Amino acid sequence: MIIVMTPDHSPEDLNRVIRRIEDLGLKAHISKGEHRTIVGAIGDERVLREIPIESMSGVEKVMPIMSPYKLVSREFKSEDTIIKCNGYSIGNKKIQVIAGPCAVESREMLEEVAKAIRPLGVNFLRGGAFKPRTSPYSFQGLGKQALEYMARVREETGMLVVTELMDPRDAVLVAKYADIIQIGTRNMQNFRLLTEVGNIEKPVLLKRGMSATIKEWLMSAEYIASQGNENIILCERGIRTFETETRNTLDLSAVPVLKRLTHLPVIVDPSHAVGRVDLVPAMAKAAIAAGADGLLIEVHPRPEEALSDGPQSLTPQQFAKLMEELKWVAEAVGREL
Amino acid sequence: MIIVMTPDHSPEDLNRVIRRIEDLGLKAHISKGEHRTIVGAIGDERVLREIPIESMSGVEKVMPIMSPYKLVSREFKSEDTIIKCNGYSIGNKKIQVIAGPCAVESREMLEEVAKAIRPLGVNFLRGGAFKPRTSPYSFQGLGKQALEYMARVREETGMLVVTELMDPRDAVLVAKYADIIQIGTRNMQNFRLLTEVGNIEKPVLLKRGMSATIKEWLMSAEYIASQGNENIILCERGIRTFETETRNTLDLSAVPVLKRLTHLPVIVDPSHAVGRVDLVPAMAKAAIAAGADGLLIEVHPRPEEALSDGPQSLTPQQFAKLMEELKWVAEAVGREL
Amino acid sequence: MIIVMTPDHSPEDLNRVIRRIEDLGLKAHISKGEHRTIVGAIGDERVLREIPIESMSGVEKVMPIMSPYKLVSREFKSEDTIIKCNGYSIGNKKIQVIAGPCAVESREMLEEVAKAIRPLGVNFLRGGAFKPRTSPYSFQGLGKQALEYMARVREETGMLVVTELMDPRDAVLVAKYADIIQIGTRNMQNFRLLTEVGNIEKPVLLKRGMSATIKEWLMSAEYIASQGNENIILCERGIRTFETETRNTLDLSAVPVLKRLTHLPVIVDPSHAVGRVDLVPAMAKAAIAAGADGLLIEVHPRPEEALSDGPQSLTPQQFAKLMEELKWVAEAVGREL
Amino acid sequence: MIIVMTPDHSPEDLNRVIRRIEDLGLKAHISKGEHRTIVGAIGDERVLREIPIESMSGVEKVMPIMSPYKLVSREFKSEDTIIKCNGYSIGNKKIQVIAGPCAVESREMLEEVAKAIRPLGVNFLRGGAFKPRTSPYSFQGLGKQALEYMARVREETGMLVVTELMDPRDAVLVAKYADIIQIGTRNMQNFRLLTEVGNIEKPVLLKRGMSATIKEWLMSAEYIASQGNENIILCERGIRTFETETRNTLDLSAVPVLKRLTHLPVIVDPSHAVGRVDLVPAMAKAAIAAGADGLLIEVHPRPEEALSDGPQSLTPQQFAKLMEELKWVAEAVGREL
């Protein structure tokens, strides 16, 4: 950590800063320049991060050198993490597509979707049991019943179940049915929920918060990892910007950035990012080209009747066509679908 | 709701849209222009919001006319809501300042702060028992013990307790000790938590989500109100923007916007918004001038030793000076402190 | 255009609105709902846009139905515009890559780059003569001399010249040397400059403003087109967001959005968007997969000596590798490089 | 400047960095930590900023210590700059309000406004002669004629003229008529225009770019100052964010931030920031409370007939009421109106 002193700091100010650093077991390295005196704190700067050095007299600013996360960093573990999940893997050459309806609306519609997409090589079925809806008057999901329907469809088709956990009180229930537990964008910094899934032995799909920096997102992953669960899949799903043509702005550059910073697999959800079915195929292809390890795509048999997210759901026919197109892109970047 | 048809829609497309509207008990009003045909849905458009009309064939876009929230809207209740809280009120002529440390670190420091600020006319003491920290390695709060310290200080000083609830499992516990329950910025769309506090008979201080639009914020208030608890205080605390000189960008125009849209009281937290103690006084004064009903300000006896948010905490001396200055501004806009 | 009246408007308010609409030659269509009265203005709403209807008594809000641009809209011209430029085309099956240094630093370095990239199938050479630099103390470009170097390299290699115009006073000079005139991100709303290039018979490469919505960007294109020059290439180059890992956030969803809204070709500049050479290849591939018609890529023989934008410039070797990879992606989406 | 080396850099990499620093006349100070080696460049780091050190082999990142601007910094000149302008001052105890119509539409309306606001103590009359309009089909201003009308009204009323310069070719003309030359938000990084006004002996009112950081804004001021003109007034006018209730988000915290960083006076334009007349008074008061040295407010005799910005223009009556209210707020913060 670099501590920049104000031009008018006193010798006592400097001494206090040095003492504080040394008291924490780090070494202080002073460098007096023409315009500024700088103190370098040498050692594990993470202990220093907890100390409000900026509040000390004579300190102008503090500049961390190291990333605030550790377990999830590429520096800590250089090889890619491959998530194993009941016979399937996420993070290796094969791109996994997780598809299905936004919400499980009935057993019939879930089966209809599953049967339509299973033959296309889709191994993971998504479906919401508990739905975080902006309006209290909107459909909130079928809850436990939806989980049971998903388990039933798993038996029938062999597809694994990906579903969202919203409330720590449902953790045991959801963990019983899900193969991968999703943490939604609005809960990326619900630290209690992160701690909860950190203690469950199931892979976690961690969506990026709508206005989370990549650093904050990795800190949320660190929360989970710090509890012992390192099976984390990061999912870019668009960030909030001033542009209104799309629901959010899909930040595809997050994919190569994350590949540098972390060993965890990265997937992309184009459906929630753009919010418009006509843009989903282009962005799904771009995600693969950018290096994503997988996709999360909403499919509904009759979008115009969907109880949530209709405007961004592909029909099974549209989805089949997209899977065909994705194959070529995957191959072009040395992957397979 | 206005439904704009595509230029090339078929008569069947139009008929299907009309039928859908009428099936929901609304009336359809068609208006054929030179470039577009438009369908107005007349009646309570909230039922229509749940239907993915945009997914219907021949529909270009859908434009809602009414706000998606109801109970919290000024249209539903025109006079200002004044929150009564054990003898004090929020939302009338008197501006309430809620002050105290970010986190309760010990009983001694809490008492020290309380005794320093109580004589300045501060009726509400803030203090975190459960802290949402970005890093799993940071101080997470003293939990139940902090609540007990706060209750003790309430007895000693008469100050009311404002503290954050992070987890629905702590709702009963926090409700037992708090006079006002705070929902933090990261939980503004934790819908389960909102439902929980909607069922508690205590006022709720609802902070704006870091990237929440004013509309989404009011929808979160509506969640609480829809459960029966209409004692909601909105708290602007800065939004996320590209500017990095301040931690967030304090959106003071939200104050007069909210005064138009809702009957709920609005307060401002300049400390979290700017994240720098040197900017807090200016923004506190500006908040009052903009029409805020109160302030939330962090005060710590020794910011350079704070376990969280040191750089944005005022010392009691700085706070006393600010209170003096605020009096003049409050008077200038016809309020009192 | 839809005009929503306030709940408490008077009959005179409504009459004044109707009269205003009819005075402009449009028809007013009134629709009285349970909660609101709505006036639809039927006819060419563009004339209405210039009138501050929102300022009229009794008006709550105004909602336009049509896009504010015309000539550049897909509705006005449904088939794709293909820009012809001295024997090369932009906007058809072949993806054009425009490459070269940020600034022309000397004749030698320009020739060095050109000779390295020409054999890779690059037909357009970019190079800055006038450089918009954030600091007045930075290298501002070689000006006219740079233009002459570029013209010389065009003669030697057959590559066409793409260079930026910053000042209307340089329009004649730049037009004399350039094959495509670039309008930079900071000048996207320099309306005088837009008017100037609208009157030149050379294709214009219009970069998106750093915080421009897609709608504003198309309005800037409309400025150029309204002067008679419809040879406009749109270039997405990243927008400003809160994320700091990348210089800007590349908004690739703008590509399919634009393909819907306009007939103009769309290219992508990954170099400026990400600002880091290690991310350029991934984003270049993603851009092609998203449907871009071309790329703008910075190449410098020795980035560590570049006078501007070194950190985002590929070496010719890195660029050659990327061109190889791009070929596969282009083919995968039915294009060629 | 601090240069952080990658964990795997070679001794040659480090030597090359050191040599580069020393070649520029600076001293290199090496500090080897447990996780990283750091090089501090001691001396005037501004020369280093022009060198792409990040592109050198073995370099992880570069962290500047000093601000990139100099002449406009508080460090360079500690006392406040007070702009003298034909007998009036901006930047001292007295708050100056610059008011008038968005665009000069006719001589009559300009006189009407001037005569209404002059008796309220307004010394500066704003009015657009050249208007930067998003649409090429909108009213673009009366040009030279508007300037003449403004000069005439100056003679009649003694009010000073503030008007925008959009094009370097109009610099001589505008300088002839204006007392203060405004550079609009869309031209904040029109570096040629900045250079032009840097060479004129008239105060410049520099509006913040819609998506400009405070640092970039000060760099634009530095452009002007570097040409010799240090009479610069900074004007905050709202930044672009995701919030759509207001046209832009007024960043009032920029006022105290700037007061720290620069000696230049800072004023606020609430009209353009919010874009809605009902919010202007609250934000004008907040601006004064936050420490602004002045205000820029749009006033139009009949906003519902305005040729531009009607919805955000106050009537003279509304403006008179606001001036009354502002007096109290100014006094409350030790200023006068």
Descriptive overview:
The structure is a homotetramer of 337-residue chains. By secondary structure, chain A is of the alpha/beta class. The first copy, chain A, has 2 domains: 2-63, Phospho-2-dehydro-3-deoxyheptonate aldolase, domain 1 (Alpha-Beta Plaits, 2-Layer Sandwich); 83-332, Alpha-Beta Barrel (TIM Barrel). Helices cover 33% and strands 18% of the residues of chain A. Chain A is built from 11 helices and 14 strands. Chain A has an 8-stranded parallel barrel with strand order 7-8-9-10-11-12-13-14, surrounded by 7 helices. A 4-stranded antiparallel beta sheet of chain A has the order 2-3-1-4, covered by helices on one side. In chain A, strand 9 (160-164), helix 5 (171-177) and strand 10 (180-183) form a beta-alpha-beta unit. The radius of gyration of chain A is 23 Å and the shape is elongated. Chains in contact: A-B, A-C, A-D, B-C, B-D, C-D.
**Strand order, sheet with most strands of chain A:** 7-8-9-10-11-12-13-14
| Quaternary structure of the protein | homotetramer
Largest interface: A-B, 48 and 48 residues
Can you tell me the overall shape of chain A?
elongated
What's the CATH class of the largest domain in chain A, please?
A: Alpha Beta
Q: What is the helix/strand order of chain A?
A: EHEEHEEEEHEHEHEHEHEHEHHEH
- Given the helix and strand composition of chain A, which structural class is it? alpha/beta
What's the CATH H-level superfamily name of the largest domain in chain A? Aldolase class I
Number of strands of chain A: 14
Unreliable stretches covering 5 or more consecutive residues of chain A:
none
Helix proportion of residues of chain A, in percent?
Answer: 25-40%
The average pLDDT of chain A is 95
Cα distance, first to last residue of chain A?
Answer: 44 Å
